[in-house]
Amino acid sequence: MQSTSLHSSLHHSVLREWNSPAQHISPAALMLPLFIVEDDNKKEEISSMPGVYRWGVNKLLEYLKPLVERGLRSVLLFGVVSSLPKDDFGTNADSAANPVVKALPALTKAFPELLIACDVCLCPYTSHGHCGLLNADGTLDNDRSIARLAEIALAYALAGAHIVAPSDMMDGRIGSIKEALRKAKLGSKASVLSYAAKFCSSFYGPFRDAAKSAPSFGDRKCYQLPPGSRGLAKRAVERDIAEGADFIMVKPGLPYLDILYETKTNFPSYPLFVYQVSGEPSRKASRPLGEQVQTAL
């Protein structure tokens, strides 16, 4: 089984720290999400998250330098496209012009010790804004979706990502991604961080504005977990671990501290992330802190 593979959990110094956690929050336990745009020299403020920006890669390098010097150890990249066309297949999710694909070599060269994760999803790149590919009647085509997600994850790994992080909640995507990495001989060089227990939430609003990824019709209730669905959350985590996830996540954070506790209790040997999403600090502070991710200890 893919879940017996361990090398993908320890190929980077930060990953080894995550698997040997201290009893306090350290810089290694925090991950900074970043929104990357097509224009390499652009910096644009996100209206729904004052003080948080979308970055072109050249501006991003300038922004990150002092943060890395002060102890930032890992980042999570989200691609944002405006001029590149969006289509039903999400063609530009892994094209050579994709901002994440373009940024990865520059980041790995500038910050060789920085751990880089990439969000893997179709919603920012599809014309319909959903997280998978659709059938003619507008329903999800799960099999085609997970094959496409595996292609995207592989493209990011080939470009230099240390972690690929599928956030789509399609059934079977962890196994599909793991198999694609294995076939490309990247199985021990790229980790998979699963958004395993990801609940429907209105807290995602500012993020969808930041990533320009809101669905053009309907909602995501048929693939994101219903609020309060404790049993489905446990099953989702079990599913992703069985398929080989190296790390697991609960999202959002504050409304689901009970799920966070139960997940860590049920799966203590897996590093666990909690995602403090955009809408949580946005409703609690006059100057939002933006998106935050941290590992649970």
From TrEMBL:
Record-level Gene Ontology MF annotations: porphobilinogen synthase activity; zinc ion binding
SUPFAM superfamilies: Aldolase
Keyword Ion transport found: no
Class of this enzyme: lyase
Residue intervals passing through the bilayer: none
EC number: 4.2.1.24
InterPro entries linked to this entry: ALAD, ALAD_AS, Aldolase_TIM
Example GO biological process: heme biosynthetic process
Gene3D superfamilies, A to Z: Aldolase class I
Residues holding Zn(2+) 2: 130, 222
Catalytic activity: 2 5-aminolevulinate = porphobilinogen + 2 H2O + H(+)
Pathway info: Porphyrin-containing compound metabolism; protoporphyrin-IX biosynthesis; coproporphyrinogen-III from 5-aminolevulinate: step 1/4
Alphabetized UniProt keyword annotations: Heme biosynthesis, Lyase, Porphyrin biosynthesis
Residues engaged in binding Zn(2+) 1: 121, 123, 131
Cellular component terms per the entry's GO annotation: cytosol
Assembly: Homooctamer; active form. Homohexamer; low activity form.
Cited PANTHER family: DELTA-AMINOLEVULINIC ACID DEHYDRATASE (PTHR11458:SF0)
Function: Catalyzes an early step in the biosynthesis of tetrapyrroles. Binds two molecules of 5-aminolevulinate per subunit, each at a distinct site, and catalyzes their condensation to form porphobilinogen.
Family the entry assigns: Belongs to the ALAD family.
Listed name of the protein: Delta-aminolevulinic acid dehydratase
Organism, scientific name: Apolygus lucorum (Small green plant bug)
